[in-house]
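Readers of this paper often ask what the protein records in our data store actually look like. An entry from our holdings is shown next, in its original layout:
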Amino acid sequence: MADQTKFHPALAVNNVKNFIPITLEMEKGHYSSWAELFKIHCRAYQVIDHILPPTPTSTDTATEKVAEVDPALWSRLDAIVLQWIYGTISNDLLHTILQPDSTAQQAWERLQNIFLDNKNSRAVYLENQFTHVHMDDYPNISAYCQELKMLADQLSNVGAPISNQSMVRPQFDQIARAMEMMAMVMQQQSAHFSQMEAGRAAIEVARSMVPQDGRDLAEFRRC
C-alpha cells in the first residue's frame, strides 16, 4: 500500500498552473475552457472520479479501488484535487465557494451552479459582452476573434448559441470600418506627399532662376 501511495500520479504534480493556465473569473467567462482543461488534467492523473462520480457503465474503476482499499489515500487525493480547484480560480470565487470540510466534488458542483444555473441571466450578460467586443481594444485581429469565439462558446453552454452569421457579421463590420479609416489615412498621406512634391518642384524652379556663376550673375544684373 505504501508503494501505491508513493507512485500515484497525482502526488507528483507540483504546479497545477502548468497544466491549467487559465484562472477562472466571474467576469471573464472562461468557465467552459477552464472546466475542460481541469477534467483533462484529472483524467490524466487518475482522479476524475473526485469531481465526476463514475456512472454505472463506467469502465475505469481505478479510483473506486483506491477509495475501497486505501481510504487515507483517497482522502489525500481529494484534498489535492480541492487544492487544484482553489488554486486556479479568482479570490472572489474562492471566497464564494469556500466551505469547511468540503470535498472536491462539492466545490466543483458549486462552481457549476454559479456558471451554469440561472442560464437566462447568464445568457443576457454574455450577449451584452459579445455585442460590446470592439477590435480596437485588442492588439491584433487574432486576439479579437478569439474573444468572440470564447463568448460564443459560453453562450452555447447556457443554451443561447450564436449563429455563424452573427459570429461573422461583427468581424466583417469592424474590419470594414478599420479599412475605411486606413483608406482615409492613406488619402491624407497621399495629399500630404503631393503637397511636398509640389513644394520641391517650386524650390527647383526658384533655384534654376538664381545665377550660378559670374557670367550668369552679370547677365542677371543687366536684366
Observations:
- Residues 2-117 form one domain.
- The radius of gyration is 33 Å.
- Residues 58 and 169 are 43 Å apart (CA to CA).
- The chain has a mean pLDDT of 77.
